[in-house]
Amino acid sequence: MFDIVIKNGLLCDGTGGPIYLADIGITGDVVTYIGEIPLADDSGEDCKVIDAAGKTVTPGFIDPHTHVDQSILTAPAMEPYLKQGVTTVVTGNCGYGMAPQGEEVFYCSDLDQEFLDLAGADPFALLSLLFDREKAAAAFAKRYAVQLDWRSFDEFNQKCDSLPLGGNLAPLVGYSAVRTAVMGRDCQRQATENEIAALESVIQDCMEAGAFGISTGRDPMYIPGPFASDEEMNRMLQIVARYEGIFASHTFNCNGQGQPDRIGGYGEMVRQAGETAIKMNISHVHVMNMAEDAAGAVKAARKTLDYFKGLAASGVDLSYDVIPSAACSDYTLTSCGYYLSPLVLLAGTRKKLGELFRQEAFRQRVHEIVKKGKMPILDENSDTCWLGELLITKHVNPAYVGQYLHHCAEKRGLSPLDGLMAVFAEDPDMTADLTAPDFQQSVDLLCSSEIAMPCSDGSSYSKDTNLSGNAEIEIYPNSMNISYIPRYLNRYGEKDFAKAVSQASGFVAQRFGIEKRGVIKEGSFADLVIMDRTLLHSFDEAENPLQDPEGILYVLVNGQIAVENNVLTKKAAGRVLRKK
After folding, report:
1. Could you say which of 13, 174, 316, 528 is the most buried, measured as most Cβ atoms within 10 Å of its Cβ?
2. Residue 324 in domain
3. Cα angle 381-382-384, degrees, rounded to a multiple of 5
4. Does the residue 400 lie in any domain?
5. Structure confidence at residue 384 (pLDDT)
6. Strands 560-564 and 552-557, how do they pair?
7. CB neighbours (10 Å) of residue 200?
8. Is 563 a domain residue?
9. How many domains does the chain have?
10. How many CB atoms neighbour CB 470 within 10 A?
């Protein structure tokens, strides 16, 4: 009768309703029975019985904001997601996407120094996103042993279908990829009427191929996204709305004058949607650049929530996702090499760069490079400058640890850039990160909303993967990529565990139109998690945050056991989902 029976589990079904004791019967890839299943009826020798007594059974969690499509061709096992109970990820966020493609290839490869070199990219560019197809194909083949043999959105999804996927993919179409496919390298401008018509045609093809919606990236560095006018976006969104897809956006952090204006970014998104009545999801909401201390961050979070309530009251169909940690860097860094990567490559090693920073002539050369716009993250006059947000987390001089870099510079009478070079010269192995530990209360407020969903903003690479491919510029996945679910459930599930589970599963499925997942009911797909809540733990605040979470005992994907006793089974039962 059943292939798998889960006995005596405390069922938290993803709807937010009460937790109750029940058995679950699974046949094939579907939950076929919920209730009491006598042992005599468990189908005998071929039925696997999992005793979940004292354990909690939840739906497989769904991450609404990932960039797994950028990594899936080389890391299809999706290890960091399965080990924390995530069985489905939404891909194609921030306007990024692996398809469609034209003669210019859109690929977010800003971390992989070897790929950038093979593809002929400028190492001093903030982001290298646009590549000649022939050069990109050669780089993909040599660096990843991947053939660049797709063009359309559907062809890429078919390629992913052929992979041994650990979990499910729910793809959005990234609008920056669409614009690049249609307009080529000349995409950093407003589109003509003929180009808009071509863009509309591509968007319709993507929606016909099963895209769950569209995403945009509107920060200046997210080229070519910011060049799309409100009218252009509205016309695309009209098409997506007809298919009942969702509009997800990485809204701008700074306005056209370079001033922090996150609320303005949300307003632009609403303005672009116009009268389409499309569902909207704002990506990774936070209050960075809106406050300088904890009290200001709380005030900014309340202002943000009040703004969202006003939008909802006016009829806007809105949700948002949020990374449940104030450690807001996208990566785990073992040095400052990431922020200085072009200069590290130029010098050869971090140690050599530290020596060069002691030379006045080289420091002046760095200033000239920055003035020419080659390293905008170090340019105080750029709206993409990170110098004011870097917190020193490790240094041979203990007086620097826990201090913001620009404060250390001020104390020495130096500019932020000169301060960075001076502090780095003292310790080339120092670490600094985009983090705001005092902002956690603001994150708690943002996570408390009924329209909020937790997310990782991560990839499918395992925790020990150096994303740069260069030992002098070590970049590893962020701790939230590995354990955002355990952190979220422990922090926000104490008062109402069922609600926390729902916000990370059933609510996500409902917002993105992912059918028969995110909830446990008869007829739903058997994406399930069995956890021991007494052992549930994330190491994200440990000295070594890159440790697998604890307490996730079993994970089932489409009726197959993907994790058993915290170990991957390599069943590869995942699928590329298509919106019906």
Report:
1. 174
2. no
3. 145
4. yes
5. 66
6. antiparallel
7. 17
8. no
9. 1
10. 18
